[in-house]
């Protein structure tokens, strides 16, 4: 009888310990689950898996000043030429401008209104006001220079400007080297003006990046 009581007591003790162990394991599992849920709830963009980006990240909200600075840095790199490259470009400019002299400019030029209106790229208003206009004169000679569809174009402050008309025959032979010019938006489009030869009419310009 005593042996039976001992066996029964051991069995009851084993069942009790097993139930306690199961309860403890279940509590730990629930606590870990709650902890993971709380961490996920407060996770930010830095905890997102690679390959996923926040819809309001840098690609969708890149500041305009960074874009403008990128264009200006690109122009500075283009202007870092060797003496041989600079000389070749100067000779190219000289030939281009000499070929673009008008015979009767008042009849050869066309305004943007006569061209059907300006439909090219528009420089942001704030940026244009800070970098162009009659208060921001410059000289074309030495700036990055190319041809586009047979027309000469130069790069200044991050944008390319293509001259669509020949230059007036009254301008000096080396005006592009000696004269201060500026870009302005007059009523119907962009134009290039020469401070040495002031007047209401300018050379029509097309703007591009």
Strand order of the largest sheet: 1-2-3-6-5-4
Structural class: alpha+beta
Q: Count of helices?
A: 6
Please bin the fraction of helical residues: 40-55%
Overall shape: it is globular
| Separation, N- and C-terminal Cα atoms | 102 Å
Overall pLDDT level: 75
Q: Largest sheet, if any?
A: 6 strands, antiparallel
Fold and architecture overview:
The chain is of the alpha+beta class and 209 residues long. The protein folds into two domains: 2-47; 64-208, no CATH class. Helices cover 42% and strands 15% of the residues. It is built from six helices and six strands. It has helices at 2-41, 64-79, 83-99, 105-108, 125-131, 175-178, and strands at 145-148, 151-156, 159-163, 181-185, 190-194, 203-208.
Short description:
The chain is an alpha+beta fold. Helices cover 42% and strands 15% of the residues.
Which descriptors apply to this entry?
single chain, globular, 209 residues, alpha+beta, 2 domains
What secondary-structure arrangement, pairings included, does this model have?
Elements: H1 2-41, H2 64-79, H3 83-99, H4 105-108, H5 125-131, E1 145-148, E2 151-156, E3 159-163, H6 175-178, E4 181-185, E5 190-194, E6 203-208
């Amino acid at each position: 009888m005593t042996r039976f009581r001992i066996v029964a007591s051991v069995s009851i003790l084993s069942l009790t310990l097993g139930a306690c162990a199961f309860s403890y394991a279940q509590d730990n599992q629930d606590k870990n689950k709650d902890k993971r849920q709380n961490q996920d709830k407060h996770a930010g963009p830095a905890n997102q898996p690679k390959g996923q980006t926040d819809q309001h990240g840098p690609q969708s909200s890149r500041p305009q000043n960074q874009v403008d600075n990128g264009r200006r840095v690109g122009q500075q790199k283009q202007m870092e030429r060797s003496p041989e490259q600079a000389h070749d470009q100067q000779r190219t400019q000289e030939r281009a401008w000499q070929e673009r002299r008008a015979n009767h400019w008042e009849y050869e030029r066309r305004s943007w209104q006569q061209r059907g209106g300006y439909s090219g790229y528009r420089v942001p208003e704030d940026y244009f006001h800070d970098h162009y206009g009659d208060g921001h004169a410059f000289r074309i000679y030495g700036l990055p220079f190319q041809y586009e569809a047979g027309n000469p174009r130069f790069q200044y402050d991050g944008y390319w400007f293509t001259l669509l008309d020949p230059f007036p025959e009254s301008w000096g032979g080396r005006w592009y080297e000696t004269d201060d010019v500026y870009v302005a938006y007059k009523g119907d489009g962009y134009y290039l003006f020469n401070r040495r030869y002031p007047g209401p009419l300018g050379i029509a310009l097309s703007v591009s990046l």
